[in-house]
Design brief:
Layout: H1 10-43, H2 46-73, H3 85-116, H4 124-151, H5 154-181, H6 186-214, H7 222-230, E1 237-246, E2 249-258, H8 264-281, E3 285-294, H9 302-316, E4 320-328, E5 334-343, H10 348-365, E6 369-379, H11 392-403, E7 411-419, E8 422-431, H12 437-454, E9 458-467, H13 470-474
Parallel strand pairs: 2-3, 5-6, 8-9
Antiparallel strand pairs: 1-2, 4-5, 7-8
Helix pairs in contact: 1-2, 1-4, 2-3, 2-5, 2-6, 3-6, 4-5, 5-6, 9-10
Length: 475
């Protein structure tokens, strides 16, 4: 199940806004980086050069953010069915390696300066240019933090925290420049070494995060996934929750247990609803795969086990079924009556042969079943039109029968109509919200049996129960 990526939806608009902020921040960071490196090279102040390479950390985080936003818009294809998110991790790994190389170059220069001696040259212009980078970095931090809170973007908020460290580094460099003016050339080496440590620390962090996504670390909170799955009616148990990808695009799969007596179509509908809710309620989830399993109770009755096996065998042959009845025969064995559903265009011989195969498999699985009576029932493959009927007199008779069992005021609606010459009755009964389902079901079943006994011409009788509105109930 794929999410839509229309340019007009809110998610796409958010991506565009985040991308715009990242581009502006990237331009500012590149300008600061270039200025620092040029000043450091011309003055020979290692701390300034180191600070310039440290600013590359901020630029690299901007590039990673831009890559994440661009990849989030690219749909999966035949060559990359899970999308292109792994390229973002590979790019991060490359940036981390380059940062380590830069750190080594600066460390080598520190060692060379220490062994060979020499002092850097610094002047008022160089000091002023270094000072100019501080307010630029401060503006970048403020811009990203405000935009991150407004757009709810983790990328912008994280990048703002990252750029904030650059303020501390720039402050350290200014201390180094002041120390050189005071004749403390050794202070340049110490500050440059501290900047190298910061670069290595940031590089290791990038390499660590990228390797986690490439090695399929869990990226979505298990409890959050379970809570969403349990919110779907019909889900009995959730386990084996897994996720992979990255924080911007996660793929989730999980196993969901449902009632073993549930039909295949209903179980599939529950799986689809779990997928839909996870993709809707958890922002980072891109795609979900749900495995449906039958739940196992500690103890099933004989009737439940037999009925479940019969349903499973029917579904295995592609047969629909209804009105399953199991009762004991004269010799303490079992007799099964069941309606099997076939396409109304199926030939009689084909339906009969398939029904016989079904009977053989059931009796092979349950030798205790002595006899199976199958009713072959055609199911129309198109909606049948409702034929008009003069049913006012019949409806009144039906209401009189209902009066013997429940109060007529409980009847919310009653429809009597004909379809293809067959008489149908649909009835909706209202009960108090405090009534147990078992009690309401027993009364509905009693009404249905009474109507079938009183009106043999009724081909189908459906009695639906609903809770009564609290206000109507109180009045």
């Amino acid at each position: 199940m794929k999410k839509e990526r229309s340019e007009n939806n809110p998610r796409s608009a958010r991506y565009s806004a985040v991308r715009t902020v990242l581009i502006r921040v990237l331009v500012a960071n590149l300008a600061v980086t270039l200025l620092k490196i040029v000043i450091g090279i011309f003055t020979g102040v290692l701390a300034v050069v180191a600070d310039g390479f440290h600013s590359l950390v901020d630029s690299s985080s901007n590039l990673i953010g831009l890559a994440a936003i661009s990849l989030a818009r690219r749909p999966a294809d035949d060559h990359h069915p899970y999308g292109y998110q792994r390229y973002e991790s590979l790019g991060a790994l490359s940036i981390g390696v380059l940062m380590l190389v830069a750190a080594w170059e600066i460390a080598s220069a520190i060692i060379e300066r220490y062994l060979q001696g020499g002092e850097p040259e610094i002047n008022l212009l160089s000091f002023a240019l270094v000072m100019m980078t501080f307010p630029i970095n401060l503006a970048v931090v403020i811009l990203e933090r405000r935009a991150g809170k407004k757009l709810g973007s983790e990328i912008l908020l994280a990048d703002a925290r990252h750029t904030q460290t650059d303020l501390y580094v720039t402050g350290s460099v200014l201390i180094s420049v002041i120390g050189i003016w005071l004749g403390w050339a050794w202070l340049d080496l110490i500050v440059a070494a501290l900047v190298v440590i910061l670069i290595v620390r940031s590089a290791v962090g990038i390499l660590r995060d990228a390797s986690l996504w490439l090695t399929d670390r869990m990226v979505v909170d298990i409890d959050q996934v379970a809570d969403v799955a349990y919110s779907v009616p019909g889900v009995m148990f959730v386990h084996r929750i897994r996720s992979r990808g990255n924080p911007e695009a996660a793929f989730v799969d999980l196993h969901v247990k449902v009632s073993p007596s549930m039909s295949t179509s209903r179980a599939h509908a529950i799986a689809s609803e779990v997928e839909r809710r996870l993709e809707t309620e958890i922002e980072q989830v891109r795609e979900v795969l749900v495995h449906i399993e039958p739940a196992k109770r500690e103890r099933f009755s004989l009737w439940e086990r037999m009925a479940e096996d019969i349903r499973r065998l029917a579904e295995g042959l592609g047969l629909g079924m209804h009105d399953l009845h199991i009762h004991t025969g004269e010799n303490e064995d079992y007799v099964v009556e069941i309606h099997l559903e076939f396409d109304d265009q199926t030939l009689l011989k084909e339906a009969h042969d398939l029904a016989e195969k079904f009977e053989d498999e059931v009796q092979r699985y349950w030798p205790e079943i002595e006899q199976i009576i199958t009713h072959l029932e055609p199911v129309p493959q198109k909606v049948l039109s409702v034929e008009s009927t003069e049913s006012v007199h019949l409806e009144e008779k039906i209401l009189l029968v209902i009066d013997r069992i429940v109060d007529r005021e409980r009847v919310k609606s009653l429809q009597v109509y004909q379809i293809s010459g067959h008489l149908h009755a649909n009835l909706v009964l209202l009960f108090s919200q405090d009534v147990r389902l078992l009690q309401a079901h027993e009364l509905a079943e009693e009404v249905e049996l009474a109507l079938r006994g009183q009106f043999p011409d009724l081909e189908h009788v459906i009695v639906h129960v609903e809770p009564q509105d609290r206000e109507t109930q109180d009045s």
